UniProtKB/TrEMBL annotation:
Residues 1-24 form the signal peptide. It holds the Pfam family Trypsin_2. Keywords: Signal. This is Trypsin-like peptidase domain-containing protein. The keyword Kinase does not apply. It comes from the Bacteria. InterPro entries: Peptidase_S1_PA (IPR009003), Peptidase_S1_PA_chymotrypsin (IPR043504). The keyword Signal applies. It comes from Streptomyces parvus.
Length: 286
């Protein structure tokens, strides 16, 4: 996974639980990699609406039908949850949370703090995502900070689409194209379906987990950044492998991936409530 960044104490706890620990970049590396990417291809997408978590990235998102008075939702990865990595088959719904998020403006400056009221949804089964319901409405965020939520795309993305991964944690963007889609992406104990594979230019790093993947042409969120093969190993932690419909395994060292988000849009009902029984909802149920 594009590992969340955690302190040494939590890393030790994760090791004791048998989970691969997150390792922060060395200070010199942090300074280098935190610098925003230059180049004209990165200018179409800003940081407005992205957030920084304590260990990951995220974004304030809305469905096309969201009302201004609905509680705002924050999108990140399931493996970024403060409760730890959900196990295979585990789905978290409506769990209290007081987590905070630093809201960024277009230039990447923090302009305010949003607070969660609950984990509306979280899982690492079939996909790797979390949705937090916040104590602020979309209208309150816009009135207070002049920032609108990023809209979720409702259709399956297409290969060749120009995209930008916008990391609120690092205040850095990564620009590339959607290279294709993976039938099954296996990493350690987890399996994800129909994952987005980037072209090699998107060299995401630890802390970019949960970043929105934005279609450069529409400005809509099409996926959530979550992992990459770091050292060429096959199907191990931090080294996902691709499995096709016939069971053939492919390893692509240095290639990174995301999980699509269009299939969660039908799950978001009035008042930002997650209803897994709504028609068209493609998220796993508890």
């Amino acid at each position: 996974m594009n590992k969340p960044l955690v302190g040494a104490f939590l890393a030790a706890l994760l090791l004791g639980a048998g989970v691969a620990p997150a390792v922060a970049a060395e200070p010199a590396q942090q300074a280098q990699e935190a610098a925003p990417k230059a180049g004209p291809e990165a200018k179409a997408v800003t940081f407005a609406g992205t957030v920084a978590l304590s260990n990951c990235s995220g974004s304030v998102v809305r469905s096309p039908d969201a009302a201004p008075t609905d509680p705002a939702l924050v999108l990140s990865n399931g493996h970024c949850l403060e409760s730890g990595f959900p196990g295979p088959g585990e789905v978290i719904v409506d769990q209290p949370s007081s987590r905070t998020f630093t809201l960024l403006n277009a230039s990447g400056s923090g302009v305010g703090t949003l607070k969660a009221s609950k984990i509306a949804y979280g899982t690492m089964t079939d996909t790797d995502l979390s949705l937090y319901e916040t104590t602020s409405t979309y209208q309150q965020i816009e009135d207070s900070y002049g920032i609108q939520a990023l809209e979720l795309e409702t259709a399956h993305p297409t290969a060749g689409t120009a995209i930008t991964v916008a990391s609120g944690y690092w205040k850095r963007t990564y620009s590339c194209d959607i290279d294709g889609f993976v039938h099954q992406l296996k990493e350690g104990r987890w399996t994800w379906k129909d994952s987005v594979r980037y072209t090699p230019e998107c060299q995401t790093i630890g802390g970019t987990s949960g970043s929105p993947v934005i279609d450069d042409a529409t400005g809509k969120v099409v996926a959530v950044n979550n992992t990459g093969n770091e050292s060429g190993q096959e199907c191990t932690d931090n080294n996902p492998c691709e499995v096709d419909e016939n069971g053939n395994v492919t390893v692509r060292e240095g290639i990174n991936y995301a999980q699509q988000t269009y299939n969660m849009v039908p799950c978001i009902g009035a008042g930002s409530k997650i209803d897994l029984d709504r028609e068209g909802c493609g998220l796993p149920k508890p």
